[in-house]
Amino acid sequence: xxxxxxxxxxxxxxxxxxxxxxxxxxxxxxxxxxxxxxxxxxxxxxxxxxxxxxxxxxxxxxxxxxxxxxxxxxxxxxxxxxxxxxxxxxxxxxxxxxxxxxxxxxxxxxxxxxxxxxxxxxxxxxxxxxxxxxxx
Length: 136
Fold this sequence. Notes:
This protein has one helix spanning 17-43, and strands at residues 2-5, 8-11, 51-61, 64-73, 79-90, 93-105, 109-117, 125-134. The protein is α+β, with helices and mostly antiparallel strands. A hairpin with a 2-residue loop joins strand 5 and strand 6 (93-105). The longest helix has 27 residues, at 17-43. The protein is elongated.
């Protein structure tokens, strides 16, 4: 803080109590984050990717039929180049098969994608599942 005395400014040498409080709060926050990161580094077990697919919607588009889905990775390791295959079957016969590749599905996260089919999935069995991945 500055004080004006006969048109001259000079700095106060004693810090304001808010400066002390802000410094203390910041130091505690940094210490807590470092403690949490250290705890995670030593206690978290690395598990291989565990992928699961949930179908969200089916809708008609100008290109055919779009089936939107979420892909979940519940493991602590990221999966790269994740291939998801979608099949339309009728009476045990595969009517159409398409796939989509995700660049990655991060650990403990979900991604959303879609598979496009030329044939109408109504009245047919839709099977969408992860087919493979690589380690990043």
